[in-house]
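User: I'll paste a sequence; please echo it back and then give the predicted structure.

Assistant: Echoing your sequence first, then the prediction.
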Amino acid sequence: MHVYMKPCLEFFHVNRFNATRLLEKLRNKRLVFVGDSLNRNQWVSLVCMVEASIPDNRLKMRVFNGSLISFKAFEYNATIDFYWSPLLVESNSDDPIIHHVEYRIIRADRIEKHANAWRDADIIIFNSYVWWRKHKDDMRMKVMNGSFENGDARLEEVEMLDGFEIALKKLTEWLGENIDKNKTRIFFAGSSPTHSWASSWGGVDRNKCLNETEPIYKVGYKAAGTDYSMMDKAKSYFGTLEQKGIRFDILNITELSDYRKDGHPTVFRKQFAPLTKEQMANPASYADCTHWCLPGVPDVWNEFLYGYLMYK
């Protein structure tokens, strides 16, 4: 048995996921995933894990304003939502469909529009990493202060990681001032690793993670794109909430997921338009080695979340 697998197996043995028990825990409560498509990946996983235990006529899923997707188990009056907010604060990437923009712009002082979607939640799981990573060496972003309405708008160009800190600062300040510490529990998910550089595990880069059928067995492996310093920054900012008596935990999914090069949808991911044969034969451009298959790795993330909610 590999060293990194032992604590995980012990956890599952003691705290095996039970959908009915979780729904009882969520009775009359609202749980919200807030962030990007990887957090949506986990939301879909959790919905799949609980809905099989509920008769079909007692559950409902609906879309509100495009950014908010809601699942409700009526028998328990339990709600599990996902809210699209990839950069945490307001930005030019807030459209859940049309968000591939050349320059990312965040509003350093604006979060209220997003916060209204989670203000009343009992449990919130935030994530935000992949949108702050550079895709090319000269990639930067812009931060907007002020507003066009007041005529004092100004743009400042910053490094991506500086923008990450600006967003973390604004988010944690808002949470510290507005969250009911007697009601709401906060989580921040660790970085979800990508497996796009096959040479990291001895493969061929042009294949990315296509046709990988086994995890990485090298103990201590770290994916090339995983930046642990970003998680340290997030932990530092969110740690300020504990000083105010707000319950906060890091959902540590990163090291476990680093090994799972075999867990991505690659060229078989559902697309708006199906890939052609030529595109499927070009994994370097079209294989999705960022998101995860379901059932799969996000189910394990939710096993961890279940353990926190039920036993801590």
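The beta strands are 30-35, 59-63, 68-73, 78-84, 105-107, 123-126, 141-145, 154-158, 185-189, 247-251. The two ends are 27 Å apart (CA to CA).
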